Amino acid sequence: MSTIEIVLIVVVALLLFGGKKLPELMRGLGQSVKEFKKAKDEPAK
After folding, report:
1. Which of 19, 27, 33, 45 has the smallest CB count inside 10 Å?
2. Does an H or E element contain 36, and which?
3. pLDDT 10s digit of each residue in the chain, 45 long?
4. Total domains, the chain
5. Which Gene Ontology BP annotations are present (predicted)?
6. DSSP E strand stretches across 1-45
7. Is 36 exposed, middle or buried (0-12, 13-18, 19+ CB in 10 A)?
């Protein structure tokens, strides 16, 4: 992804969700990614 694409995504997210809601969404996304990586690294039972 280029820098322009990232900036465009952030601007669209700000327009859709507003500045107050965005930190909550990013926190939730970060936790989801962390859980996914954790589950991926665990051996299957």
Report:
1. 45
2. helix 22-41
3. 688 898 898 888 888 878 788 788 888 888 998 998 888 887 766
4. 1
5. protein transport by the Tat complex
6. none
7. exposed
For residues 21 and 4, give the distance between their C-alpha atoms in angstroms, rounded to a whole number.
Answer: 23
Instruction: Tell me the C-alpha distance between 18 and 11, whole Å.
Output: 10
- pTM summary value: 0.52
**DSSP label at 42?**
S
**H helix or E strand, kind and range, residue 16:** helix 3-17
Question: Rounded to an integer, what distance in angstroms lies between the CA atom of residue 27 and that of residue 38?
Answer: 17
